[in-house]
């Protein structure tokens, strides 16, 4: 596949000869305009139920500091917005099974169901499992016997019209480290990976991981994890549709962790949902309709950059990286994993485990790199028009205008950029 490089200056765009695109691409970007969805359900008419679990006191590996406090914090925030909350601490295998059975009994009568789990989770062969406090997990074969699969909860919640799962269960996990070490010493693969595995949602279901798949989340240096604090804070925000609300949660977690942890949402929701509704006619701003996720905020050579962008189907995005010296590298959309989300949206994503990794190399330019993409709202652009658009966008970026539009209808081009640092 051929590609070209551009060098942008204040007054001109010069073409730099290119060659074959390597499998390990360097840098990347994302922009997204989300459609407004159908009208949301009225809060007062919903039968809302939340199952909240905080597992801290693990018998074999010791105590996690924050899950119990996290569960209490999230439970109180959900009660304040009209949920009936069933909160549980330090559940063993039997206890996890009982709350799953109770949720299954309630599901047919619910309009909205929430699951929040804080504690340890583990993945094996791409399947996620929640770990009870009495688990021993002496070998990989004991995972299915001593844990409860996340899929079991999802199958129950699929029966509910709207279901939301929040998994603060990707924390540094001695179980996973032990099993990885064991399989390594045996010279075989046990199918174990750090963090949790990506999943596929069904219907109006939103699943949020506290951090990216295959990554580890922070338990938090204070009284609560960064994810629990951000979630509890924003649940109380009036008239914020859940997809908008979770962008704010993501922003806060990344800010607190200096870009080292980014929550990820997986969803095919086509129905709007609001935790707290006071004004049914409240409009969303363009900024709220935009999703751009680049993780982590600071990287060194050998580390990967992850990018996620949700765009409407009529948008054909052009992805670029712009270095501190204004060198531009286009990234073909074929390098992204694409998923149809429903509601007229497509997700473009490159993350660890994707088809192509975005690996930072020693030769990559150090400093604040700007990454993003533009999307023509009208006819497809020629290469010469793209160069002109990039030149104009670069002028906007120089003024710290990281998102906006170029031109006017019918040839308007929307753009959105962000920065991350190469050390």
Automatic annotation (TrEMBL):
SMART domains registered for this protein in UniProt: CASc
Q: Which GO terms describe its biological process?
A: proteolysis
Q: Which GO terms describe its molecular function?
A: cysteine-type endopeptidase activity
Q: Which residue ranges traverse the bilayer?
A: none
Q: Name one Pfam family in it.
A: Peptidase_C14
The Caspase family p20 domain sits at 46-174
Matches recorded under SUPFAM superfamilies: Caspase-like (SSF52129)
InterPro entries, per this entry? Caspase-like_dom_sf, Caspase-related_regulators, Pept_C14_caspase, Pept_C14_p20, Pept_C14A
Q: Could you tell me which PANTHER family the record lists for this protein?
A: MUCOSA ASSOCIATED LYMPHOID TISSUE LYMPHOMA TRANSLOCATION PROTEIN 1/PARACASPASE, MUCOSA-ASSOCIATED LYMPHOID TISSUE LYMPHOMA TRANSLOCATION PROTEIN 1
Give the family this protein belongs to, as stated in its UniProt record: Belongs to the peptidase C14A family.
This chain belongs to which protein, by name? Answer: Caspase family p20 domain-containing protein
């Amino acid at each position: 596949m051929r590609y070209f490089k551009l060098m942008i200056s204040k007054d001109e765009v010069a073409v730099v000869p290119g060659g074959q695109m390597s499998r390990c691409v360097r840098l990347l970007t994302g922009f997204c305009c989300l459609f407004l969805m159908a009208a949301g359900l009225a809060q007062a008419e919903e039968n809302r139920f939340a199952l909240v679990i905080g597992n801290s006191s693990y018998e074999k590996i010791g105590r996690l500091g924050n899950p119990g406090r996290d569960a209490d914090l999230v439970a109180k925030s959900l009660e304040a917005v009209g949920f009936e909350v069933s909160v549980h601490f330090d559940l063993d295998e039997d206890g996890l099974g009982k709350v799953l059975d109770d949720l299954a009994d309630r599901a047919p009568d619910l309009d909205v169901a929430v699951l929040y789990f804080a504690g340890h989770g583990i993945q094996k062969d791409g399947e996620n499992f929640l770990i009870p406090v009495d688990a021993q997990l002496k070998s990989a074969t004991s995972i299915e016997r001593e844990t409860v699969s996340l899929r079991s909860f999802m199958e129950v919640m699929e029966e509910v019209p709207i279901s939301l799962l929040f998994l603060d269960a990707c924390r540094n996990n001695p179980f996973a480290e032990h099993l990885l070490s064991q399989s390594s010493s045996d010279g075989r693969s046990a199918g174990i990976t750090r963090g949790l595995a990506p999943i596929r949602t069904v219907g109006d279901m939103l699943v949020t991981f506290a951090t990216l798949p295959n990554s580890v989340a922070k338990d938090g240096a204070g009284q609560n994890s960064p994810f629990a604090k951000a979630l509890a804070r924003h649940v109380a925000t009036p008239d914020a549709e859940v997809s908008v609300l979770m962008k704010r949660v993501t922003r806060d977690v990344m800010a607190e962790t200096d870009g080292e942890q980014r929550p990820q949402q997986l969803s095919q929701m086509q129905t709007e949902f609001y935790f707290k509704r006071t004004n049914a006619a409240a409009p969303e701003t363009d900024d709220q309709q935009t999703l751009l996720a680049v993780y982590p905020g600071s990287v060194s050579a050998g580390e990967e950059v992850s990018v996620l962008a949700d765009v409407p189907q009529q948008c054909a995005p052009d992805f670029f990286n712009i270095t501190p010296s204004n060198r531009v590298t286009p990234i073909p959309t074929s390098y992204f994993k694409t998923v149809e989300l429903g509601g007229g949206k497509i997700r473009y994503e490159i993350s660890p485990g994707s088809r192509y990794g975005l690996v930072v190399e020693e030769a990559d330019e150090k400093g604040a790199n700007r990454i993003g993409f533009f999307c023509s709202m009208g006819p497809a652009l020629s290469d010469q028009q793209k160069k002109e658009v990039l030149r104009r966008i670069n002028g906007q970026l120089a003024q710290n205008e990281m998102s906006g539009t170029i031109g006017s209808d019918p040839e308007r081009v929307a753009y959105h950029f962000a920065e991350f640092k190469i050390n």
